[in-house]
Write a structure and sequence with these properties.
Blueprint: H1 2-25, E1 29-33, H2 43-50, E2 64-68, H3 73-81, H4 87-100, E3 107-109, H5 112-121, E4 125-130, E5 139-143
Parallel strand pairs: 2-3, 2-4
Antiparallel strand pairs: 1-4, 1-5
């Protein structure tokens, strides 16, 4: 009997360690804009922009969302956390929007560093990146 308890203890210890380490390894997702953009954005504003329900920043200037590639773990985190959808739901949503002529999905680029580079060069763009990618070339408007 003590052998079984020791096995359970070790198994629990390993699982706890795994979840702690995987939590440390997972970076946060931040939404970024050009440094000149003075707009404050709520999670709802961000969601509406990335779902094509809104096309401008609160100040009236054009807002162009940029997505990351389908294989990006940051995209998966953003989609679930901010858009409250899984990858299949977001694909279905955009298929319906395209079919009915109500909108097109944001342009998808490779990864966080590519999104950051594009956003830093264009005040109309809004994107999301791994929080570890942020520097002075962009402005963080939300953290998730």
């Amino acid at each position: 009997m003590p052998f079984v308890s020791l096995h359970r203890f070790i198994a629990c210890l390993l699982l706890t360690t795994f979840f702690c380490v995987s939590g440390w390894a997972q970076a946060g997702v931040v939404v970024i804009v050009h440094p000149s953009n003075a707009n404050a954005l709520s999670a709802t504003d961000i969601s509406r922009l990335f779902l094509g329900k809104k096309r401008s920043f609160p100040d009236g200037n054009e807002a162009i969302p940029i997505d990351q590639s389908d294989s990006s773990p940051i995209r998966a985190a953003f989609t679930e956390t901010v858009l409250k959808k899984n990858e299949q739901q977001i694909k279905s949503y955009w298929a319906q929007q395209l079919f009915t002529g109500k909108g097109t999905p944001p342009k998808a680029v490779g990864n966080s560093s590519e999104v950051k580079k594009l956003v830093a060069s264009n005040p109309a763009l809004i994107g999301y990146v791994d929080s570890a990618e942020v520097d002075d070339s962009v402005k963080v408007v939300a953290e998730f």
